[in-house]
Amino acid sequence: MVDRLVNSEANARRIAMVESCFGSSGQPLAEQGRVLVGEGVLTKMCRKKPKARQFFLFNDILVYGNIVINKKKYNKQHVIPLEEVKLESLKDEGQYRNGWLIRTASKSFAVYAATSTEKEEWMAHIEKCIEDLLRKSGKQPPSEHAAVWVPDNEASICMHCKKTQFTVLNRRHHCRKCGSVVCGPCSSKRYILRGQSDKPLRVCLQCFDELNRERARPPTQPTPANITPVKMDTAGSGGDSSGDEDSDDDDDRVTAEEKHDEPKFYGDSDKTEETNNHSSKDSAK
């Protein structure tokens, strides 16, 4: 079905519309062989709280952004190659229902659909795109994925020392290896985690020790290629903290509770649309 949509006029119009909605804040999305498979609003679990985000599923990438004006304008565009994605279904828990994890080597996060049916549709379409993409490329799915960050509001004290209470002065930080919320002194070490960045990233003391043990393993058990140790001062919570921010976590213009339309997944409707368009042109002759 995707192959049939590659050169369709409807597909080209949809991709052009997505580009126009992001405007100069987004990158060009039209490429040879790229198909817009579906679109809709999902609730993304951000660092501070769940927030509504607009998602666009293509046959090779997943794109999402902040909603400025629904169906008209989006910003803070994120593009995720599907060959790097692994999905993991989440069990319903309290107010968080119909969710799943989107895991990649550089970033992992949870999203939630409005209904169980929407969840099934999203996951099925994403999985199918990933399966087709890997089959055509001959690549293997990635084995290493970034940790999912624990939301700030789920930790009032440091998850490592179990003592430090978070205040305006005692900031929350996230370990990039395990995703735990930790205080400055308990996250004073850094490691280069290749899948996430070429720069040293904050890790908690427990992960730092585990990474060092992995490094000390015999040559027959090499250190994973995505992990490189670096030296860092242990002065406490000083140093950079800007990297702890979720880059799309600061826009509250559309909240997770707002009503949104059901997602749209394109397929047989294109055939009908194309047929109707050609029939109208023939009738006008």
Automatic annotation (TrEMBL):
Chain positions covered by the region annotation Disordered: 215-285
InterPro entries to which the protein is assigned, alphabetical: PH-like_dom_sf, PH_domain, PH_domain-containing_F, PH_Phafin, SOS1_NGEF_PH, Znf_FYVE, Znf_FYVE-rel, Znf_FYVE_PHD
Residues in PH domain copies: 35-131
Ranges for domain FYVE-type: 152-212
PROSITE patterns associated with the record: PH_DOMAIN, ZF_FYVE
Organism of this sequence: Chrysodeixis includens
Biased composition (Basic and acidic residues): 253-285
Protein name, entry field: Pleckstrin homology domain-containing family F member 2
Keywords: Metal-binding, Zinc, Zinc-finger
Gene Ontology, cellular component aspect: early endosome
Top-rank taxon: Eukaryota
GO biological process, one term: endosome to lysosome transport
